Amino acid sequence: MGGQEGWCILRTRGASTMRLASSLRDSGISAWTPIGSVTKRKGRARDRVDSPTPIMPTFVFARSSHIGELQRLRTLILSPHPAFSIFRHLNRVPIISDHDICSLRDAEERSAIQVRKRQRNVVPIGSSVHVSEGAFAGMSGIVEESDGKTAVVAFGGNFRVTIAAWLLPENLLTAA
User: Fold this and answer.
1) Beta pairing class for 31-32 and 35-42
2) Model confidence, pTM
3) How far apart are the first and last CA of the chain?
4) From start to end of the chain, where are the E strands?
5) What is the 8-class DSSP label of residue 124?
6) Within 10 Å of residue 138's Cβ, how many Cβ atoms?
7) Which residue in 25, 100, 102, 122 has a CA-CA distance of 20 to 30 Å to 157?
8) pLDDT at 46
9) pLDDT value, residue 167
10) In Å, what is the CA distance from 100 to each residue of 12, 29, 106?
11) Model confidence over 57-76: pLDDT tens digits?
12) Could you give the count of Cα atoms lying within 13 Å of 105 in the half-sphere of its Cβ?
């Protein structure tokens, strides 16, 4: 692993996956589970709502430096965490490198982008924007039109581009 710390695998019930990762993080243990999103219908109007869900239910990754503490937590009768076990193979705890979970991190990022694409983002006309992603990343301009799905951004002179509004996060907007 080249001196880098890896991850061990924890197993829990599917419904406890996100709660376990969150609970461990809150207690100071570096833990992660890849989170995706599912669209559900909610309420009488049947509005669509994006709901976070584990990409790999039952699996939580914890930094291997916490194995001793995790083994101790498993033996507690009244644990503050959802029940879990530490995955073993051939009577050893396998250590997973950061490189080995890259594809899971990519899947989590793709899911987050899909959620952003579904949300409408009406950018106020006259707002100054700094594009952080896509073909125009790093460029700043002024919004001339916006309909929630796209925004026409003037980057100076006659250089105007229609950009997907989801590429213009609201927290990067400043009044012109």
Assistant:
1) unpaired
2) 0.73
3) 49
4) 7-12, 31-32, 35-42, 47-54, 59-63, 84-86, 128-130, 140-146, 150-154, 160-164
5) P
6) 8
7) 122
8) 77
9) 82
10) 21, 20, 11
11) 999 999 999 999 999 998 88
12) 8
Inter-residue contact 86 to 70 (CB < 8 Å): yes
From CA 164, how far away is CA 176, in angstroms rounded?
A: 20
What is the tens place of the pLDDT at every residue in 88-136?
999 999 999 999 999 999 999 999 888 888 877 788 888 888 887 778 8
Asked if the model's pLDDT at residue 38 lies above 90, the reply is: no
| Pairwise CA distance, residues 7 & 53, whole Å | 21
Kindly state the DSSP code that residue 35 receives in the 8-state scheme: E
User: For 116-129, b where at least 16 C-beta lie within 10 A, e where not — what string?
Assistant: beeeebebeeebeb
Residues in the chain: 176
- Residue 172 has what pLDDT? 47
What pLDDT is attached to residue 170? Answer: 58
